[in-house]
Every structure is written in C-alpha cells, then in structure tokens.
Write a structure and sequence with these properties.
Oligomer: single chain
Mean pLDDT: 86
Radius of gyration: 28 Å
Strand content: 5-15%
Low-confidence stretches: 1-10, 16-21, 26-31, 451-455
Number of helices: 27
Largest sheet: 6 strands, mixed
Number of domains: 4
Distance between the termini: 77 Å
Amino acid sequence: MMRSEMMLSALPPARTWMRMPAVLPCALFGSSSMQSFSALRLHPIVHTVSRITQEARAAVYLVGGAVRDALSGIGRAHDFDFALFDGFDGLVAAFARSVRGKVIPWDVDQQRVVFRQGGSRITADFSRMNQTDIIFDLQQRDFTVNAMALALHEPGTCLIDPLGGQADLDARCLRMCSKQAFEADPLRMLRAFRLARQLSCVIEPLTLASIHRNSALIVHSARERVKRELFAILHAPEREASLRALFDTGLLAQLLPDIAVIEGVQQSAPHEHTLFEHSLRTAGFLDEALRITQSCCSDLQAQSDEYLNQSLEEGVTMMSLLCFAALLHDIGKPECASEQAGRIHFYGHERSGARIIRGMARSVGLGRKAQSVLAVLVEQHMRILHMSLLESVSERAKARFVRDCGPAAVGACLLAIADSLATGSGPEYRDSSRRVRDIAADLCARILATSDLQETAPLLTGADVMDALQSGQGPQVGRILKQAARLERNGTLHDREGALAWLRSQRPTD
C-alpha cells in the first residue's frame, strides 16, 4: 500500500452533511480543553468583546481558529473571529474605540479591526450572521474544524459543534462543511492546503475531489487574498508535497498558467529528471540546503532564521519568496533550448528566466521589492555553479557575487545548493555538486556573520574605457563594461592589471 493510500485509509469515513448534536456540554472535554476555554474567555480581547456586547444585550460568538486552537492546545493570541447578529456596526465601532484600533471593512457583512498590543499585531474579525441561528452560520463556513463556537453572552464553556469538528480535529482530518463550500468562496481551496500543513491534517478524499472539480473557480478570488494564502503555503515545511498537491488538483495551473511551458521538457545529463520534476525537487531541497549551511555555521542559526522569516511585504517572507523562485528558477529554459550533438542546452536561460519571472510575480500581486529579489535569485542561480568549475575562486569573485545579489545573496546560496541536490547523483556530477555546496555554505556563513566579504569596486571604470578607446561617452562604453563584468564573474579577469590588458585588446585596429 502506498503512503498516500495509507494516509487516506486512516481517515474517518466520509459522512453526509446532517446536523449532529450541536451543543456539547463541558463535561465531555478533558481538563486541558476546559482550562483552554476558560483562558480563552478571560483573554483581554475576548473579554472586551464580551463586555461590550453584554452592555448592548447582544449575542456574540467566538468562532473559528481561536476555538480550534484552544482544543488543539495551540497557543495563539493574535487572531480572533466573532459572529454576531444585532447591532453589528455599532459594536464593531465600539470595540475599535476600546482598543484604539483601525476598522477595515471587507464588505457589508464583514469588518476587521487591526491594532497593536504588547508589541504584537492583533486582528479581530467580525461577521454579521445572516440568520439568528448560530448553527446555520457555522454550517456555511469552510471546514468542520473551523465550524465550532463558544457563546460569549452565555455562562459556561459549552462547545457548539454541529458538524463534528472536534472529532475531525482529533482524527487530524480536514473536511469541508458542505458540498457548496468552495463555490461559496473559492479561496477556501488554497486555505485547505495551508491548514493541512498548519494542523498536520490530511485533506479528506471527498474534500480533495471537490477542490479538483472546482479548481478553475480560484481565478475569481481577489488577487491579494490569493497571494497571502499561496505564500503562506510556500513558507511552511513540506513545500514539495504542497506544490505537488496544488498541481494534482489543478490549482497550480490556474494560479500560474505560464508554468505549463516547463511540463514535460527533457534535460540532458547530469540532470536525471524532467524540467518540471527538477523544479519541484529544487523547492523540496530548500530545507536540506538550509540544514547544510546551518551545520557549517551552527552559531549563526538565529541570523539565518531571521533572514528567512523577514517580511518583504504583507504576507510574503523571504522563505516563501525563495520557494517561489526555486519552483520557477528554470522558467527561461524552454525559450533558450537548443540541441548540439545529441545534447540539450539552455544557454542564457537565467537571464530569460529573470525577465519572465518578473511578469509572473506581477500576475500574483507581488510588489516591486519582491519582484526585484525574485529576478536576482533567478538571474544569479548559476553563479555558484560557475564558480565551482574554476580551479580556485578568488575573494574578489565572491565579493562581486555578494554585491551583485544584494539582499538576495543568502537566498541565492541556498537556491544554488537546492538546485545542485535536485539535479543528479551520478559520479560525473558528484564532485561538482559537493563543490557547489562547499562554496555556497561558506558564503552563507560569511554573509550572515557580516565578515570580510566587503563590496569591491569594478575592475574597470567608464573613464578607463574612454581612455583606452579614445572616445567619449556612448553605448559602446556600457557594452564593454558589461562584458568586463561577465569576464570577472566567470574568473577570466582577476585583477586590474589583467583587466586593463584585456581592454587594450578591444581597441579597434586600423
């Protein structure tokens, strides 16, 4: 039996969407859950909402993730969801004033209050119930593990659980609340994969089949919401498995239609896989690349974690962006493919890829900073491999790499290692792969330690070129400087004396 089949066989059987016993008395819970629920009621945010609604004699329910995480024993105190019926606008405004927060209206029935408390960013989401019945409201939600509630306006800690969310949570099963769940909000399909990783759950077979059936609907979701969910998935562990699942359900093709060009593309040795398979494996090897670099500089783990967890824009970390780059680092290969003597080559694919990925980044809503980092990661992903082919790598070449990569330098090192690990394991490639890992790990350690890899000036300046050519400013000067920079990167030019000698050879002859 395959692992995926074993995982599915361990799930509770599929069930029809019938109303189960909705309110479970507190006596059914263990002492830890009881304590978590009690602590949840006493949380300052929950207590404030409860006080305001009691003063207004309104019913309010704490729903979703906070209740789910209390049952799981996960300590999360920065994300709250409340459902209420009477006095919606006034109660939200009163809460925002109480916590000195900002109200962000999603639509007429949903509002978010954002504020800071104890140095942390807190969000409180409020939704207006379309019916006075909380059971009906919970049945319209995304997944059963999120369809549980606590009534804050009533004493006690009874759990309202009409769809068996607690049982699914205990079984580590992610199940849609209804057959219409994804039609009502297609973004829930992406959320399924994020929650599956976050909660260590398996997506129930009928739910997975429904995602596959409805995958085309994801294009109707707001781009900003899609971006947040997608990059949350890419930040989490087991990225290769998540990307494969997104591909198998059709979601990946809907989100990144340009990725179709790398499917089925063959590659010559030392590559052992098709281009698409290699790309998935590269994303999967990022964690191993991180382990390799951290084993070389264990005292710098905090710095590497800080680097990868840094936020480049709302919902996008360096780690998630690096995974996006790993998946698409060879996106330029198909348009650069050529064949010579029975071997397939992709000369210049890194430059083509940098151009293509900028467009793909814009299509998923990434800002200019993230676009620039992605372009650098893709354009520079071959640099360390080229260094590994040299007899020796000069300090100047390493410093130039760091300067050219800028803030993406550590990410480029990790991508180079992951790329080499995903390429092949044959003896003809083993030494080169080991050398890539050694150079990249050393560079990572020195960059994170802010050591002696200082930025260096170019070997040649515009003035040097104009003097040698006896000309003024013009496009030819820029072309020669770019050519000199390429020769320095690949190790042909090592020092200023050699660069000047090369420059003299570029003079036009009579």
